[in-house]
Inverse folding.
């Protein structure tokens, strides 16, 4: 197999991979610039030859690093990645880092929106099943005397569901 094998240090897993992160108890999101490098650090040339810089909003250094690292691992399809601590900092890219970074803030906002829509849909479906289930017999049929109430319940959920469809369409990632 060409290339080098990754050796996992014996201590890995027994302690945090990144130590000495600043204690951060502020709960407000703010921008971070995080540099991540992958297999190119082993001497193979990557797409840029150096670390990839990401800009994202997070509540702490730890969360910013974890999000950028996870994004890079998924994008590069390899777990062989690490944060370059000396080039990662709180704030927007500065100096030479102003050019050539990937801004993840819009994507993270879109994903939060998608999570919210999924939560709303789950709650709506639970209410729908609860309310429509009262009209359905054990054999799965709706008796004629309950048909109108059943249909009215379904129509009211159709309207609520359509609102979720509109929210979902707005979060498609296209501008």
């Amino acid at each position: 197999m060409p290339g080098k094998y990754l050796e996992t240090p014996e201590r890995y897993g027994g302690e945090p991979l990144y130590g000495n992160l600043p204690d951060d108890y502020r709960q407000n999101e703010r921008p971070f610039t995080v540099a991540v490098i992958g297999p190119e650090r082993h001497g193979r040339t990557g797409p840029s030859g150096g670390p990839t810089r990401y800009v994202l909003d997070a509540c702490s250094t730890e969360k910013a690093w974890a999000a950028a690292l996870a994004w890079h691992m998924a994008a590069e399809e390899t777990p062989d990645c690490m944060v370059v601590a000396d080039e990662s900092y709180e704030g927007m890219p500065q100096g030479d880092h102003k050019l050539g970074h990937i801004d993840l803030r819009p994507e993270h906002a879109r994903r939060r929106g998608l999570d919210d829509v999924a939560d709303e849909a789950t709650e709506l479906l639970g209410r729908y099943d609860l309310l429509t289930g009262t009209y359905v017999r054990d054999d799965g049929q709706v008796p004629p005397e309950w048909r109108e109430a059943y249909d009215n319940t379904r129509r009211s959920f159709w309207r609520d569901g359509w609102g979720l469809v509109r929210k979902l369409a707005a979060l498609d990632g296209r501008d």
About this structure: Confidence is low (pLDDT under 50) at residues 8-12. The longest strand covers residues 30-37. The chain has three helices and five strands. The first helix runs from residue 61 to 76.
